[in-house]
Design goal:
single chain, 12 strands, 34% helix, globular, binds magnesium ion
Length: 270
C-alpha cells in the first residue's frame, strides 16, 4: 500500500518535480542510452552505480542479474526518473531525460514491482488504476493476455469482486497476473520489471511466465530477473556487481564464459 501510495503521489504531485516548462513527450520509440551514469544515495559512503555506459535498442529485452545490493533496482529507478544521475546522462530516444517532462515520459512506461501491490477495490479498479476511461473490452483484453481472465470470471462477482484486505484472497500467481494486466492495459513502450522471487506452484509458474513473455514482446524491457526462463528469453543479460556491469551477453555465451554469471546460474539463479 505504502509503495503504491507513494508512487501515485510522485506521479500526480506537480510540485515534487521540476517538470514545468520541460519538453513533453507525446510518443516514444523506447531507445535508452546511459552515458557515464553514476548514482550515490544521499548520506551513502560510496556510489551505488559507477559510470554505467549502456545502449538499449527500442524493443530490446535486458535482464539484470547480480547479487543483492549490486544496483539493479537503482538502475530501474534511474530509468524511471525517480532518481536522477549524480553524474552522467540518461537519454530517451536520444534526448536527455533531464530536459523532459517526466510526467509525460511515464505515460509510456509501466512498472511491475517485485511484490505486486493490490489495493482495496475491485479487480477492475486494480487493473485500470489511473485510467478512468478504460473500456470493458480493453480490461478484458488485458486480463486475457495476462492469463487472468479465467480465474477472474470465476470470482464471486467477476471483476467487480473486491480484493485486498477485505476481499477475495488471491494466490501469489493470481496477484502477479493482475499486476501484468495492469501493465498491459497501458500498452507501454518501456517496461520495468522487478521479478518476484516468491516461488509459485508449477501451473501458476507456467501461466505467469507465458503472460510475462506476452507483456515484454515488442517493448523495451529492463527486468530484474530471478527466473531462469526470463533470463533465457532476454536479448542481453547484464551482470551487475557492486554497481558495475561486469559481464554482458546472452545466456549461452555467459554460461560458456564460466564467469560470474555461470557461478550465479549454478547457485541461486534458476
Ligand atoms: N535508499 C537508499 N539509501 C541509501 N543506500 C541505498 C538505498 N537504496 C539502496 N541503497 C544502496 O545502494 C546499493 C544498490 O542497491 P539496490 O537496491 O540497487 O540493489 P539491488 O541490486 O536491487 O539489490 P536486491 O537484489 O537486494 O534488490 C546497495 O549498496 C544499497 O545498500
Ligand atoms: Mg532490488
Amino acid at each position: 500500500m505504502e509503495s503504491v501510495r507513494s508512487i501515485a503521489e510522485v506521479m500526480q504531485e506537480p510540485d515534487l518535480e521540476l517538470n514545468e516548462g520541460r519538453q513533453s513527450v507525446p510518443s516514444v520509440s523506447g531507445r535508452l542510452t546511459l552515458r557515464g551514469v553514476t548514482y550515490r544515495y544521499a548520506d551513502a559512503d560510496g556510489d551505488a552505480l559507477h559510470g554505467i555506459d549502456l545502449d538499449i535498442a527500442a524493443g530490446e529485452t535486458i535482464a539484470l542479474v547480480g547479487s543483492s545490493g549490486s544496483g539493479k533496482s537503482t538502475l530501474l529507478n534511474l530509468v524511471l526518473g525517480f532518481v536522477r544521475p549524480t553524474s552522467g546522462r540518461i537519454l530517451l530516444d536520444g534526448v536527455d531525460m533531464g530536459s523532459l517532462d517526466l510526467r509525460t515520459v511515464r505515460q509510456h512506461i509501466s512498472v511491475v514491482p517485485q511484490e505486486s501491490v493490490l489495493f482495496e477495490g475491485t479487480v477492475r479498479e486494480n487493473v485500470a488504476y489511473g485510467l478512468p476511461a478504460a473500456r470493458d473490452r480493453e480490461v478484458t483484453a488485458a486480463l486475457e493476455a495476462a492469463n487472468a481472465l479465467d480465474f477472474v470470471r470465476e470470482l464471486p462477482e467477476g471483476w467487480d469482486t473486491r480484493v485486498g484486505q477485505h476481499g477475495a484472497r488471491l494466490s501469489g500467481g493470481q496477484r502477479q497476473r493482475l499486476a501484468i494486466a495492469r501493465a498491459l492495459i497501458r500498452d507501454p513502450r518501456i517496461l520495468l520489471l522487478d521479478e518476484a522471487t516468491s516461488a509459485l506452484d508449477a501451473e501458476s509458474e507456467a501461466s505467469v511466465r507465458d503472460a510475462l513473455a506476452r507483456l515484454m514482446r515488442g517493448r523495451t524491457t529492463l527486468v530484474v530477473a530471478h527466473r531462469l526462463s526470463t533470463v533465457r528469453q532476454a536479448d542481453r543479460i547484464l551482470v551487475l556487481e557492486s554497481g558495475r556491469i561486469v559481464e554482458a551477453g546472452d545466456h549461452e555465451e555467459l554460461v560458456g564464459r564460466g564467469g560470474r554469471y555461470a557461478a550465479l546460474h549454478a547457485g541461486s539463479l534458476g
